[in-house]
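**Polypeptide and fold**
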Amino acid sequence: MIAQTIQLALAPVFVLVAMGNILNLLSSRLGRVVDRARALQDRHMATEGPDHDEVVAEIRMIDQRIGLITRAIRLMVVSGLSVGLTVAVLFMEELVDFKLQRVAAATFLTAILLLMWALVLFLRETQISAQQLRIPRVYLELEREI
């Protein structure tokens, strides 16, 4: 029976591996965003007028991105803990001979819902990032034929 429990626990463990990869991606993005925020904070005092307004606008967007990434990381960690709890419940069911299938289902469903929520926040962060990276039309020189 323990062999069946191990087989049953493999699916949540694969989800946990995927979550680890997503957490790695999120933490890398957070690091880059924080680096950009520090560079903009240095420029903040050195700028005036329209340039200063652009720096402030970008700092505001970066603040949004940091908040979204941080919340997504938090949700991913709680989701990962829920997956771990699911695996533990599966083994506890086998060891103590209690019917805990509904508890295991609930913890796994919670993990998936938290994962989905984190991915929605990640999607929003990437949308803000793309919006922030738009190339100003003046640099495109659209009125000129090449």
User: Anything to note?
Assistant: The longest helix spans residues 49-96. The chain has a mean pLDDT of 92. The chain has four helices and no strands. The radius of gyration is 22 Å.
